[in-house]
Amino acid sequence: MTLNTQEKQELLNDHQIHPTDTGSAEVQVAMLTKRISKLSIHLQNNIHDFSSRQGLLKMIGQRKRLLNYIKDKSQKSYNELIGKLNIRG
Length: 89
Prior knowledge:
It is a single chain. This protein is an all-alpha fold and about 90 residues long. It has a domain at about 25-85: CATH 1.10.287.10. Helix content is about 75%, strand content about 0%. Helix 3 (about 50-75) runs antiparallel to helix 4. The longest helix is centred in the C-terminal third of the chain and has 24 residues, at about 50-75. The protein starts with a helix and ends with a helix.
């Protein structure tokens, strides 16, 4: 499940660190979280879609690695991000 341009722009505006930030770890985590939630809804309706399930697991792993990077860099920004995205972290 991909994100359309409007959804991406809203995520950028909410999570960017500075005005020209488009690819920081925080923005990437926010985009992955949105894609994961959309794909989870799809998989609840299509339980035999195994290739999408594999893609979901890969996205979850990538998000976990990015969150670990943010946590190592700054505990404060990590806590703010997981609070804002409402994930367990």
